[in-house]
Amino acid sequence: MFNTTGFHKAALMASKPKPQLLHTIAETAVQSSVKRARILSTQSSMKDAFAKYAEYLNNLNDKRERVVKASRDITMNSKKVIFQVHRISKQNKEEVLEKAEKDLGHVATWHISRLVKELQGTDFWKLRRAYSPGVQEYVEAATLCKFCKTGTLLSLDEINAGLLPLSDPSLEPLQISNLDYLLGLADLTGELMRLAIGRISDGELEYAEKICRFVRDIYRELTLLVPHMDDTSDMKMKMDTMLQSLMKIENACFSVHVRGSEYMPLLGSNDPGSFLSGVPDIEL
Amino acid sequence: MNSALRSAYFIFSHSLNPNPNPKAFPLIFCLHSLPFISVSRLPLRVSRQEQPSRSVRTSTFCSSSTMAGTDANSLASSSSVEKQFEHFRTQLQDSGSLRDRIRSVAMEIESSTRLIQASLLLVHQSRLTPEVLEKPKSQVGLLKSFYNQLAEILRESPGLYYRYHGDWRSETQTAVSLLAFIHWLETGELLLHPEAEEKLGLNESDFNLDVEDYLIGICFMSNELPRYVVNQVTVGDYDCPRKVLKFFTDLHAAFRMLNLRNDFLRKKFDGMKYDLRRVEEVYYDVKIRGLLTMGD
Question: Which residue ranges does the record annotate as region Disordered (chain B) (predicted)?
Answer without folding.
Answer: 48-68
